[in-house]
Fold each of these.
Amino acid sequence: MGQGFGKAYEPEEGVNTAGNPSIHEVDGERRHVLRCTTAAVALLMGSHTLTAHAVAAVKGKPLGFTGVPVSSADALVVPPEYEAQVLYRWGDATGIAGAGAPAFSADASNSWQEQLLQSGMHHDGMEYFPLDKNPRHGLLAINHEYTDDGLLHSDGMKTWTVEKVRKSQAAHGVSVIEVVERGGVWRVMPNSRYARRITGNTPMQFSGPATGHALLKTAADPEGMRPLGTLNNCAAGQTPWGTFLTCEENWNGYFATQEKPNPDEARYGMRAKGFGYRWHEFDERFDAVKNPNEPHRFGWVVEIDPQDPTQTPIKRTALGRIKHEGATTTLSRDGRAVVYMGDDERFEYVYKFVSRDKVKPGGYKANKELLDHGTLYVARFDAQGYGRWLPLVHGEGSLTATGGFASQAEVLIKCRQAADAVGATKMDRPEWVAVHPNTGEVFLTLTNNSARGQGSDPARMADASNPRNDNIMGHIIRWREGKGQGSAGRSPDGDASATEFRWMHFALAGDPNAGKAEYRGSIKGDMYGSPDGLQFDAGGMLWIQTDVSTSAMHKGAYSGMGNNMMLCADPATGETKRFLTGPAGCEITGVTFTPDRRAVFINIQHPGETSSERGDPANPKAVSHWPDGPTGGRPRSATVVIRRKDGGTVGT
Ligand code: FEO
Ligand code: CA
Ligand code: CA
């Protein structure tokens, strides 16, 4: 064991080593938490999915694979003992039963109606749901975060039509596909009774405390109950009861509004022309001057039952309205659901939701209202490794009518303002959260924040938890829930419902050869920057994915870092090894395993992205021709499945 929790969470990180529990004590504690997380989740999942969480027999040593070097090649590079297979590219048929399977047109001339039956663009967070006793037959729920309209249409955005708006909306949302492996080869099942596409126009429902609130009512939905579509679905999560949580991140970019946005619009980053999607020109829903409440209908976590293609997706208002990066779910000691969520923007916050009720056996049917009742908290990271979860509950503290919050619904709809009011800690872009399957310890990526330290606002200066000004490299923080007594006594007990926690850094990212000391970081092993995707495998190894923006890649402090990558780290020792590097101009995101850990699925997002805003339709392969090669029409985001050539455990 590398570090016991008592030692790890001493107030003076790495300095004060007094009063550690003995290794035996820590072992006992680990075993206890194991019972509370992995095993409890398995029990709740029901019999067939027991396999999902039972740890498969593992042959080989964790981190035993051959690490790969940094790369600037236009290729996906995996260790020599592994093979990667492209499974589901933008434009590939989703396989919806009875709906047809239009082939992808390499010149991007598919109609919007065809796009509704094909993979969306820009794959992001993703979860695998086993279907039966065969661990290698299951469903993949895949987010399609956004579109590059320079590549989505044959002539890009040169002309602009209602059909192009519809195609862009159809290329957003989620895919559910059925996948199966035979003889080492995976395929997407055609005519699947599970397959579906959810888009920017799919009918949805609100549930939870904000449902029907005046701020959610529009002319098209006067009851404020039935929003349309989900957008900018970034990271995701899987619940212990078998549903997919998809998260609406930069939804503000789709709306046009007045030249000077009102304070609530400004707090969520809305601008006069949004991010230039131009949907409002043909779809008034996205004109916030005409439909000022429509933006309130985005920024939620959406629950989808992947097993039921007729289910109406539910926007869970109890989880707050932010720019949701992800929703990582675990269980408290007493069996309630705990959902960790980042709000990915500079100086935004980390949240968690603790359900009122316990998770029940019986899948989604038995847990349909679980995410509607509970307490939402936001994190305050204090000095010396202490932290506190601050409740966002109407009537408490300044969250009152005089403080600008007339009800719990308003606290949730104006969640960022509520978090401001309670004094949450401004973080360096909170991205993914991962919970250790055995210990319950929580890890969070803070991707970067070059604005840290600029200006004179003390809340924007480097602090204990965000320790570097001009933080272009990002970091990973870890915490353990519960009251920690430090050197005076026991370490925190790890109960996810706790209102206090003890934190420390896992790694400050960087290049040890960088000129400036603050860009060098503290990684033990292979270097990386801008960590984003984060996931544990069932064996407790931590997988880290990077999202260096195309404007920073290969330049300045990033000049030695190559393309975006995925690494694997041992949380006990910190040892980190690079597992893959992506093709030119992509980000690596989405990571999910089959229960037997013989395959890992990842997403290559936006291969070939240029440093300008959108691809050039006259020269779509300027940066990359991945994955179709030089004879293909344009680069395409894709889901890739990776396995050991000998069929062994991934990560060994
Ligand atoms: Fe969509 Fe925060 O990355
Ligand atoms: Ca992300
Ligand atoms: Ca990112």
Amino acid sequence: MIPTITWEGNHIRLVDQRRLPLETRWVVCRGLNEVIDAIKDMAIRGAPAIGVAAAMGLALGAQSIEAQEYETFRDKFLQMTRDMESARPTAVNIRWAVERMKEIVDEMRDRGVDEIKEALKRASQDILERDIEINRRIGEHGLPLIPDRATILTHCNAGSLATGGYGTALGVIRAAHEAGKDIHVVVDETRPLLQGMRLTAFELMEEGIPTTVIVDSAAGYLMRRGKVDLVIIGADRIAANGDTANKVGSYQLAVLAKENRIPFYVAAPLSTFDLTLQEGDQIPIEERDPKEVTSFAGQQLGPEGLAAFNPAFDITPAAYISAVITEKATFWKEHTAYGRKLRPAGQVFSLEAPHDCQVDKGSNDKAGNSTSDLKIPAKPEHQCPHHPADKSRQVDSTRIPVGALRKQLISREPPPLGDKVVHKHNPEQGTEDEADDL
Ligand code: MRU
């Protein structure tokens, strides 16, 4: 795997994703503005990867601040964070990284400026390493959801290149392949910049995973013909009610998946949740240069003067998402079939089980939290049409304490979330309640 981004001596080096897979070129950034430009121009892209780049860019920028007094250093650093935050608006990861770096500067107010600069540099490298570890955990949690001989549809690139390494959606696919599952991946080409065909197909083929590219508009045809067993995508931001922003085209895939009774999974780290936003429509959607649509590789394709609209992302409402796979647990949609209603906006983790796949044994929270108001009645076992004889697909329901979950997230003032139910589905690792870990 080509490393997405590395810190080398006095500069940052990132692989130019606009040129892959035909050319492997490196972009060398020696200052903050070069990193911001690399993010804006999508030399580096993918939500977690731009989070890492933001952290490294700020650490790099901090090195160039000449002031030795703390207050002057801090003022200059805060200006840098404002410039960085405006680089790309949809992915929450830039803001997450900025907050983390600001926190370090605030916590070290009694230390010398040189020491702070060193700490920022170390922290940005830790963010990179931690991201890879988180993705491996996402892969482990997602593994039980991938049946042997599955055909999996994915969109855009949520792989090693979009992250510090390993990938989120592709991390789950990679984990299934590493576990010896015989899988086939159908990749949407992902217009207009073709991240699916150029980057995802490239990563999968490097791993020796059977891969077929389709034009984005062929997905419905394949699903209707029963050629797709599940869809898995990454996420740029997930609002408090579970609505998810991801590469434009994700929403239509989710609607098609629901219509064709195919599980639709989102794989993302917990840091992708933005609990300051109640619902998806509050997520800012980046609009990019119309020329990305009307031209390709600098070559104009449409008639001169053609207008184009180029939203880079869309919102998939939580109702279309079967489950969100994170590094801590898999969060299932609440199962309406058992008489439960979807909860109002602001209550994320009442997500519903996918179609009929869930068998809930009604276990209680072992973390010492009262669950009496949320006790889930034992439900009859039944067979899932997608995975008929697979007993390992049994699920425990657990509850994650809200306060503990919040600690994982960057939100300073989260909205009231109420009670949450987590339906954990991780039979290969037993059914132990992980609430404590959160
Ligand atoms: O515009 P991009 O290429 O940055 O969009 C990337 C995506 O939409 C990814 O699916 C998302 O960032 C998740 S990456 C793990």
Amino acid sequence: MDLTLTDEQAGFRALARDFLDREVVPHRAAWDRAESVDLAIIPKLGEIGFFGLTIPEEYGGVGGDYLTYVLAAEELGRADSAIRGIVSVSSGLFGTSVLRHGTEEQKQRWLPDIAAGRILGCFGLTEPGHGSDAGNLRTRARRDGDDWVIDGSKVFITNGTWADVALVFARTSDDGPRGVSAFLVPTDTPGFEATEIKGKLGLRGQATAALSFDGVRVPADALLGEVGQGFKIAMQTLDKGRVTIAASCVGIVQGCLEETVAYTGQREQFGQPIASYQLVQEMIADMSVDADAARLLTWRAADLMQRGEPYGTAASKAKLFASEAAVRAANLAVQAFGGYGFIDEYPVQKYLRDARVMTLYEGTSQVQKLLVGRAETGINAFV
Ligand code: COS
């Protein structure tokens, strides 16, 4: 694998950083306090191309390669993980599922608006009683004439109250993971309700919602893929999502490193900048090594994905390592900032709060370890 970025990749990364430093970084603390980003940022992100990076040009996207996508996710994670989540759930989890499994009509209907940031999508998999054990979800879809009627509930759904369309995973037969199907549900369909979950530790700028479905009726062409294929669609999409989370965690580590180097270089104690003390340099060195190691694991997974090779285990390793590294780095950054690290005038406490969910969602660290363990041993610890 060649680690040299092409001119296009380096150019997009520079464009992304410049845009985010101007349009997001100055506002992130206020958005975090307000528990909502200013939604006027969404079409601006669309114009730059963030929502269309892995959507082909024929569906209104930019059609970039996966490494460019992970570079964008890293820059978004460095700037504001709440914004990163809005983008990657809409274009990544929702958009990728439609791109890979949709009919031509479904792609034409949804992807151009998703790629432009004109509408948002969400991904309805997790339920109040089924998080890691996604294959046993309980939301039901039953056939009624030509329609499907959905009843049930979802929780922790990013973009839930803002989305125009939800990808909803529902049980169409009692056959474990093989009995799950996927449906594209416009959120203005009668019986669909989204309720925002307030008071989150991190990612406060993005809307996270509980969804409920009370006799939500959708036509036959709302089915994505085949009946019974829903769990595989979810798992395939999450493989890519885990690479995106890993990339955004690289951005958190990188952001913590940059902030810590800058702060400790000018903060003096005992007559010297604290960056001159060995114990502070140890913190900086640990963050720097974690940033490189997490980035290399992430790029390796993206490279496998780009070449069409199996990459699920590489995605799990990248997500596991990078998310744990993000928590470590943010914790160290708060320590290096001392009392100033504890208040929201400085960005490092937000990095810590945002990093904390990264080891939980899109598959906990424990799930990733068991996936890696299963790949190494051939023994399934989930049964
Ligand atoms: N890609 C394609 N197919 C996959 C797949 C993948 N990554 N992972 C599993 N499948 C398929 C399997 O091949 C199997 O197919 P068959 O029925 O044809 O044999 C089917 O799906 C069931 O697979 P498996 O037996 O592995 O299902 P499990 O219920 O054991 O899955 C884990 C267990 C824990 C791995 C899975 O439920 C998981 O990843 N949970 C975490 C969910 C998650 O990330 N939630 C966060 C949601 S977004 S915030």
Amino acid sequence: MEDWNSWDDNGDAPLLTSDIKREFPFDLLSNQTKNLIDFEMDGYENILGQLRATFRSGKTKDLKYRKKQLEALLRLYEENREEIINALAADLRRPRQEAIVFEIDVMTNELLGLINNLDEYAAPIKPDKGVANMFDKVTILKEPFGVVLVIGAWNYPLQLLLVPVAGAIAAGNCVVLKPSEISVHCSRFIAETFPKYLDSDAYQVISGGIEETTSLLKHQFDYIFYTGSNRVGQIVHAAANKYLTPTTLELGGKSPCYIDDTVDLNRAAKRILWGKNSNVGQTCIAPDYIICTKEIEKKFIEESRNVIKEWYGDDVQQSPDYGRIATDGNFKRLVTFMNCGTIALGGKFDASDRFIEPTILTDVSHDDPVMREEIFGPILPIVNIHDIHDAIDFINARDKPLSLYIFTSNNKDRDLIIDSTSAGAVCVNDTVVHFVCNLPFGGVGASGMGAYHGKYNFDTFTHEKGCLEKSMDYVSEKLSDARYPPYTDNKASYLSFMMKKRKFWKIPFFSHILAFAFGAAAAYYLKKYYFN
Ligand code: NAD
């Protein structure tokens, strides 16, 4: 699949670094924030050095401190609700309801989950012990990585940055936040507001564009969490490779949407068009294209026509509930897709307003540009197939998607598609809403690596450190001294017996009972042979 950002190469890039510096409103930043924005390598080294010192001090590992910081972040959302809504409207003309539901609520609920469950998530795990370790302490400790870098994307400029940041804080890390330079107002909001609520010794916002991210990536981090395009994902992964830094890549791709004739098509159209046209399709898990038979296509388009009219009225451009394309570059790229196949619905656009009407394309060829790259806009092509096996082959011939949508009431067909394909996640009979369930969120193959949200968010930023504490007593030594030379066949057999993985019934206090039995046997032996 071509990268959706490939239009960068032909001179239509949304913002060059020089433009970014020009567009970024540095003059509006406070002096405190300006001090943090040092585009020289040494400047970053100073910031990172300070964060490393804070991490080494152990301050961020304290659970009370972590909760206090998470609660401060919660206050930031509560006390700046209107500023958040305004920043999103300025960057993306995001309707108020979408700002609340897709950003503020997502961020708030993630924080509440982390705060409420932090003690449980951070508690050491006691794994099952084998016979060889029955007198020892075996524990899995939850250790923060250290100083982590979180790089956000512009399409959901707050939650895609601040949700993983909350996970990193909950896990006890220090964090460098890098907002996207394209969502200028949200980026400024974060740079201005974050230091007022959270501890600047442990968390620093670094603003800027490609040049600054490139410089940042030359430094060593303990973990990198990146959300954005596949193309830049590869750059981030290559930079991380230099230091073997563990990395989560939340990338994009084409998420297919299969529809069969067993579902209510009006309801299906509503759920698909909502997922496609919220944030005007600039959503990584928006249904990218539909796969269905020619008969379903016809009915789907009729239902869609009614739904769009019901939602946005006769003139979509006048609707307050419909957003705009974020950059001129993305707008130009999307307009070229109108030349693929036939426009069955919509098709209007207005460059002066970066407006593109919800559009459905039919008769697209599998090789059309609209089918080669992630669309990331309100254009929905329909690919015709003959049957479910055709659909499965079509999906499997392409990169593994971030999400796979299946609209069917036929459980056998549902299971067949789920079992025969691979995707970051599957959502049956709806779109996008799996994002807010208690599910791991992330891609597979070309759509990314690693996952987050809820407990998975905490776990992503946590190293699970195995810890074995051997008993030094006589019995423990006796149980394992067969490992010492001189080696014999009997010793080898005994060690194999002790080390063998067995399926035990889970008996409570098994090791205590075993220790008691061993002690009783030893007492009996000593009494019989030594004290008689
Ligand atoms: P992007 O990759 O262009 O930019 C994201 C970040 O990378 C920005 O902070 C930017 O400064 C930095 N960056 C850009 N070019 C860089 C370079 N050459 N070197 C170093 N850093 C660079 O992505 P985007 O345009 O913000 O987002 C759109 C893409 O992200 C789509 O493909 C979409 O599907 C994907 N996405 C994925 C998710 C997810 O959760 N999986 C969420 C949102 C977006």
